[in-house]
Predict the 3D structure of the following.
Amino acid sequence: MTMQIDVKNLSLQFGNHYALKDVSFQLSDNKIYGLIGRNGAGKTSLLSLLASFREPTNGTLKINGEIPFENAKIMQQVNFIFNKDNQDETEKLERVLGDVQRYRPNFDMEYANYLVKKFNLPIDKPIRKLSKGMQSAVNAVIGLASRTPITIFDEVYNGMDAPTREVFYQELLEDQSEHPRIIILSTHLVSEMDYLFDEVLILNKGQLVLHEDYETVVTKGASITGASEAVDAFTQSMNILNTKQLGNTKSVMVYGELRDVDRKLAHQNGLEVGPISLQDLFIHLTEGEE
Ligand SMILES: Nc1ncnc2c1ncn2[C@@H]1O[C@H](COP(=O)(O)OP(=O)(O)OP(=O)(O)O)[C@@H](O)[C@H]1O
């Protein structure tokens, strides 16, 4: 089943502070969505609204046409995975997985056990005695094996070491291709995770500054390098994100449609056109004063 998420003019306020301001978007395909933003940008706020942990101050959030808050049927379809505090969790992994299986109808215990082995997790130790990275891996196992139609991972990979994160990414891609669902990954690890994303949402200071297909993002951005005057002339009507100058050489990062004819023209003027990464775009779309 494909779920549909409709977010319209959504705001969340804490006192006078807007954690989210007038955010609108739709997610309607079983894809992997990357939600990126700097510290305090509003990622967790948005995800906690999607997971019905709280209600918006303004605007509407609908899942399959229904308001999810206190809506048991919809909440069943959403799984919000985050690194929760497990210091009081005296249960062992085996038991915890059994509990999850009871309330997640798509939970696949065989797959969970396979992941437990992949992540080298001990099943006979209380969760609270596992290392931080292992606890993150436990959350990853629960999130993947539950196969919930809307699965949200809020930076669970932050506690994992690089090889463990790699295992998570590979398993995520593989399981998503076999059991497609909406997966939302919030992260700061943009350059490491960008290849996972089908679509990208960038939040900046509570506002959505970009929602695009990953392929489109990558083809729309370019760096133009060459003699200052030639770069200035070529980019004068373009959306410039960043400029670097070294002697008479200038490198400008632009974002917008760069047609084939533009690329040819750049070449004729001795300019070099290079790609920009999602990380570059993220940095320059979200820089500025705090
Ligand atoms: N319970 C709360 N009470 C007051 N302000 C809050 C609360 N939760 C979040 N905020 C504020 O809302 C803003 C957005 O916070 P949020 O946790 O959503 O950001 P984030 O993008 O997830 O950040 P990070 O990457 O650092 O986890 C921040 O300015 C934060 O201080």
Q: What stands out?
A: The chain is about 35% helix and 30% strand.
